[in-house]
Amino acid sequence: MIDSKIPPGPIQEKWTQYKASCRLINPANRRKYRVIVVGTGLAGSSCAASLSELGFQVEVFTFHESPRRAHSVAAQGGINAAKDYKNDGDSIWRMFYDTVKGGDFRSREANVYRMAECSLALIDQAVAQGVPFAREYSGYLSNRSFGGVQVSRTFYARGQTGQQLLQGAYQALMRQSQIGNVRLHTRHEMMDLWVEEGKAKGIVARNLDTGEIKLHVADAVVLATGGYGKIYYLSTLAMNCNASAIWRAHKQGAFFAAPSWTQFHPTSLPQMGDYQSKLTLMSESLRNDGRIWVPIKSGDNRPPHEIPEEERDYYLERKYPSYGNLAPRDISSRAAKEQIDNGHGVGPMNNAVYLDFKDAINRDGKTAIEKRYGNLFYMYKKITGMDAFKEPMLISPSAHFSMGGLWVDYELMSNLEGLFVLGEANFADHGANRLGANSLLQACVDGYFISPHTIMNYLAGEKPIEDPKPELSHEIIDTNQKRLDNLLAIQGNKTAEEFHKELGKILYNKCGLIREKQTLLKAKTELKNLRDSFYKELLVPKGSSLNFELEKAARMEDYLELAQLIVEDALQREESCGAHFRAEHQTPDGEAKRNDNEFQFVSVWEILENGNHNLHKEHLDFESIKVSERSYK
Amino acid sequence: MKLTLHIWRQENQKSKGRFETYELSGLDPQMSVPEMLDFLNEKLIKDGKDPIAFESDCREGICGQCGFVINGHIQSPEKHATTCQTHLRSFNDGDELFLEPFRAAAFPIKKDLCIDRTALDRIIAKGGYIGVNTGQAPEANSILIGHYTAESAFDAAACIGCGACVAVCKNASAALFTGAKISHLAMLPQGKMEAKNRVKSMVAQMDQEGFGSCTFTGACQEVCPQSISVANIVTMNREFWKS
Question: In this protein, which residues make up the domain named 4Fe-4S ferredoxin-type (chain B) (predicted)?
């Protein structure tokens, strides 16, 4: 049932072979085909622009007012590529290996190799678009280092790499919209997937300003709708990030893979109070120069400058001497949680650790540090009112990236034919833990270089679609209208936001950085109760046109269902791997303990008629590298 | 802490707006302004009233979505900050705040504090890009760009499209927004090829959208959350005359 369609041959030749043998459509016929792209972040914009350049008609949907607002803008630190401009021993192979190891040997080998392979062309593409990457005085591109690797392969544009890359993709998209192949539907939210004879043939979308719901048909549908870390409520994600598009597709039959693999970012700002709506991320690049520490004595409430050197525990440097402060995210986050849970937490709520630049400032001077991280320090000050040049930053782990997502094969196509899923919305490249600066890369590579070929290959076998009979489209529109009417009709006493906060607490405490069978079982009951009460107590103000509360409630309804699958997935996986840490499965020194004999597979969930789930397994075969214990000591 | 809020309420683009007053207590000085509105909206919803329509997404000052006017300050009373980067610690206990949407003919009001800024996208569509298709790019290091040029290009490219420059301008001019993009691309060798057409069509679109002319007061630079310099407007004008 699970066929990942990995091409035969040596790993270095798979993608070349695929491109050489995939089906093509001649330029005159391409304009007969229409593709819907949902989402205008890096993956969506780059895919839509690239398809339009090839001559396809593209319909683009985003719930934002402008495509440029997508959450790719918030990525700070950088994008990886195996250019080896530093002559420090980097190569496609090393990047591939680092990524597979970083993902704790739970990713699909062939996909990862392809991502590393395409990274070279991506930097070329971005530079040609005018992305202002950091440069040396000589005019050559500059690099820095990120977590989980020992080379410097990260390209960056100050602390705004995501914003700058998205500008490139957004501008390419706007250019195509001007030429006329791309039609933009802003302030439109996808509500459902239209499936005809097992193939994705369109979407149902709601105009958020007018409330109008319409069916839009196409020959293929691309979902590039990002991650769902916001399900934890407090996260580094934007307020409107949601799982609705992929969850609705899942409910129409698309398989969901590894839903519980969520990365917690180690360097976000800690929670300061109950009113808080999000946790801002501080770029991982800060760990190049910042040293992480806590007081050795638990409950030590002295201000940081009064704690002498010998009473500080630089715990990452102590535990992982070869990677130190640049240990991968899952490990760094767990280590921070361990310190906080054991009473070493600092800050007003004792829920943070220090990230200290004192030594770097003494070594390189304030000017050099300011040059490297000035805008991040400035941002830190704007948010917290504190000056990181004078006192260490307070940082804490926060829900961040979804390694899980809709299941896709090598062509980035779901089990539902004609449904392509790109970027963070899919699974596959990052395994159980994503390495820093690989997210922007995956989104770009999926959109610019992979999906244009695989979508054309699919369309070549399809006859261009005609508009569906009106009675068919009425039915699916009615179903979706009814769903919103039902939410509006509950008229209880709790807002969608209040439910979201409760949901977030359950997931943080019971299915967060550390999971355990007993607490997961408790979470299951609590989630069921929360969902029941949602249908009794939800309060959405009336109004079917512009109504932000109705948008939130519909997304919340999907989150409540997804949360149950997340817990189910975490329960089923009786091992620790990457970001999924089961307390029952750890080595004597507290590291994640994989169980390769029983769990060297990706959990792929199919939804059944009654809403229950059926588990399929995609076994992960490692033909090119040897599966080993993942150590950063 | 306590605040008295006077918030602009307007049902839709065609209806007439007015200020409505709300008294809030139990606020935390560390709350951001959007978080304060979340707090207020929860109360309004529970009282059976229509919540304030406002938009905010990233809440860390990078998506450009959230801006409105606070006591006459565009986005924020703080310098170079977005609305979401403004915290209640910027105000005193008991202060009165007037919140209203950005005012510009090219930014029609949708509801309450929400405005339509798609005019900015249409300016970009007219030439705010380098016309390179996927696959055409040469090896990245074959295009050398000096460190300082790259840094200056970044300074211009840092625009988040929030529209604060338009909102603060007495002429509602989009010169800083448009100038920043023209200047970012004109500085780079790969952007020079299309420079002439770019500036002509972007400037024409800016005029067509109903943005006013620039009289160079420099107010835009003062409120820009990314501190984008008015020198970019000079570059735009120079590029325009060259074309």
Answer: 150-179
CATH topology of domain A23-263+401-459: FAD/NAD(P)-binding domain (3.50.50)
For residue B197, pLDDT over 90 is answered with yes
CB B62 within 8 A of CB A70: no
Mean pLDDT of the region A507-516 = 96
Sorted by where each begins, the domain ranges of chain A are 23-263+401-459, 265-400, 472-600
Please tell me the predicted confidence (pLDDT) of residue A287: 92
> Do the interacting molecules here have an ipTM over 0.95?
yes
Please judge whether B137 and A186 are an interchain contact, meaning their C-beta atoms are less than 8 angstroms apart: no
Please state the rounded mean pLDDT for residues A300-325: 95
- Write the class of the CATH domain A472-600: mainly alpha
**What's the 3-state SS for A475-507?**
HHHHHHHHHHHHHHHHCCCECHHHHHHHHHHHH
Burial of residue A362 (CB within 10 Å: 0-12, 13-18, 19+) is exposed
Confidence category of residue B32, pLDDT binned at 50, 70, 90: very high
- Token readout for A379 is 């941002």
Relative orientation angle of helices A109-129 and A161-179, to the nearest 10 degrees: 70
Mind telling me how many Å the CA of B8 is from chain A's nearest CA? 17
- Return the half-sphere exposure (C-beta side, CA atoms, 13 A cut-off) of residue A463: 2
| Residue of chain A nearest B55, judged by CA positions | A548
For the question of residue A329 being annotated catalytic, the response is: yes
Give the closest residue to A102 by CA, choosing from A338, A283, A330.
A330
DSSP secondary structure code for residue A447 in this structure: I
Mean confidence (pLDDT) of chain B: 97
Q: Flag if B31 and A172 touch (Cβ within 8 Å).
A: no
Residues of chain A by 3-state class (helix, strand, coil), percent to 5: 40, 20, 40
**What pLDDT, on a 0 to 100 scale, did the predictor assign at position A632?**
86
Neighbours of A137 (CB within 10 A): 9
Domains of chain B with bracketed CATH: 3-111 (3.10.20.30), 117-242 (1.10.1060.10)
Closest-CA residue to B125 (of A176, A355, A340, A362)? A176
Confidence of residue A471 (pLDDT cuts 50, 70, 90): confident
In chain A, residues with a C-beta closer than 8 Å to the C-beta of B133 are 50, 53
Residues of B in contact with A133 (CB under 8 A): 150
Mutation target to probe the B interface, by most B beta carbons within 10 A, among A156, A267, A383, A555 is: A383
Q: How far is the CA of B143 from the CAs of A130, A175, A271, in angstroms?
A: 10, 23, 44
Minimum-distance CB partner of A135 among B51, B139, B147: B147
Residue written as tokens 């046109």? A545
- What are the start-end ranges of the E strands in A62-118? 79-80
Among A79, A83, A85, A127, the residue to mutate for chain B (most B Cβ within 10 A): A127
Q: Which one of the listed residues A108, A206, A329, A434 is annotated catalytic?
A: A329
Distance CA A276, CA A232 (A): 13
Of the candidates A128, A281, A549, the beta carbon closest to that of B130 is on A128
The answer to whether the CB of B56 falls within 8 A of the CB of B33 is no
- What's the count of helices (H) and strands (E) in chain B, helices before strands? 8, 7
Q: What is the β-pairing status of strands A353-356 and A393-402?
A: antiparallel
Tell me what the mean pLDDT of segment B101-117 comes to.
Answer: 97
Partner-chain contact B35 A276, CB within 8 Å: yes
Is A493 within 8 Å of B57 when comparing Cβ atoms? no
Pair A574, A599: CB distance under 8 Å: yes
CATH class assigned to A265-400: alpha beta
The contacts of residue A55 (CB under 8 Å, 6+ apart) are A27, A30, A31, A181
Half-sphere exposure of A414 (CA within 13 A, CB side): 34
Answer whether B31 sits within 8 Å of A275, measured CB to CB: yes
- What distance in Å separates residue A136's CA from the closest CA in chain B? 6
